Amino acid sequence: MFGPGLPHFAVGQIVKGFGRGSKDLGIPTANYPLEVVKSLPNEIATGIYYGWASVDRGNVYKMVMSIGWNPFYKNVHKSMETHIMHKYDRDLYGSELRVAVLAYLRPEKDFASLEDMIKEIKNDIEIAEESLDRPEYAAYRTHYFFCQENSSD
To answer: Which of 13, 32, 93, 103 could be disulfide-bonded to 36 (CB atoms 3.0-4.6 Å)?
Structure first.
């Protein structure tokens, strides 16, 4: 059911990314700092994943996450960019982001155009939306990780 290194739980402060999620794509992302990215287990391959996310230990929402280099943009540093399937009415920079990464969706890839990339991301979101309703994934929405005081509890 789960792939290598999964499920994986990560916690860290939301930092400014490249500003492309909202601006270029219309799909906002919450980005982890480099130290969280560097702490990923080696067995977690780059690619697109889905699972659950919580900001400041609030409600838990479905999410899709890109882990990797974003070939379309030719990133220099590996990143973890989380699209939370919820519209927030505030800036999330500095907030605590907790994620349970549950399943691998597809490898990261380059795209011929921005429109092609947006179409693929929207497809990823649809697949995650449906998949996370399956009982084996839905159970993680209430995992104790989302209400712990800190990651070492």
So the answer is: 32
Q: 0.85 cut: is pTM over it?
A: yes
3-50: pLDDT as tens digits: 889 999 999 999 987 665 555 678 889 999 999 999 999 999 999 999
Q: Is the dihedral of CA 17, 22, 27, 28 positive or negative?
A: positive
Average pLDDT, the chain: 89
The amino acid occupying position 138 is: A
81 is a catalytic site residue: yes
Q: Cα(20)–Cα(68) distance, rounded to whole angstroms?
A: 15
Cα–Cα distance, 74 to 20 (Å, whole number): 13
Which among 43, 81, 96, 149 is annotated as catalytic?
81
